[in-house]
Amino acid sequence: MRRISVTAAIVAFIVTAAAGANAGRVDSSLLRSMLIPGSGQAHQGHYVRAALFAAGGVIGGTGIFITQLHYNRAVERYDREKGIYLEFARKVESGELVQYEEMQSTYTAMQDAWDSSENRLAWRNAFLGLFITSYALNIVDVLWNPGEKTEPVSMEFEGSGVRLVKTINF
């Protein structure tokens, strides 16, 4: 939780600094980028950047969702194995006979479930970092590069003809 708070404070600082540098020059692109990562860049005509930020948001969000599901399943498996192991402990305390192999295999399964949940948590945090980073960079990019919206296709007059020219901004 502390890492999330520190990350949020850093993002807030960067966004505030970027907003101060471009005060009065930000249009609806900022609002668009806050709602959907990359849409502000697309609004400004920067399609490659828009695709990168959108991809970062989609990959990060999807990764968070999938790894959270797997993490929850691993924790449930750990809790189930822990319950069985604690039941063995209760039986031993009450004087019942318990097979050592069963108890040992349950303990091993509990440790495997714990390791699996730790691995899933690490992946979830990596995807969370990707999502937060791409979202923050998306907003900072819109604030630092407000730019004018450029049309993707323009016309050039040549002699007696007209030539269509496609423009791509990065």
Write structural notes for this entry.
The chain has one domain. The protein contains five helices and two strands. The model has no long low-confidence stretch (mean pLDDT 82). It is 74% helix and 7% strand. It has helices spanning 2-21, 28-35, 39-44, 47-93, 100-144, and strands at residues 153-158, 161-166.
Poorly predicted tracts of residues:
none
Total helical elements: 5
Within the largest sheet, what's the order of strands? 1-2
Backbone structural class: mainly alpha
Provide the number of structural domains.
1
Describe the structure concisely.
This protein has one domain.
SSE arrangement:
Elements: H1 2-21, H2 28-35, H3 39-44, H4 47-93, H5 100-144, E1 153-158, E2 161-166
Antiparallel strand pairs: 1-2
Helix pairs in contact: 1-5, 2-5, 4-5
Question: Which key features would you list for this structure?
Answer:
single chain; 170 residues; mainly alpha; two-stranded antiparallel sheet; 2 strands; rod-shaped
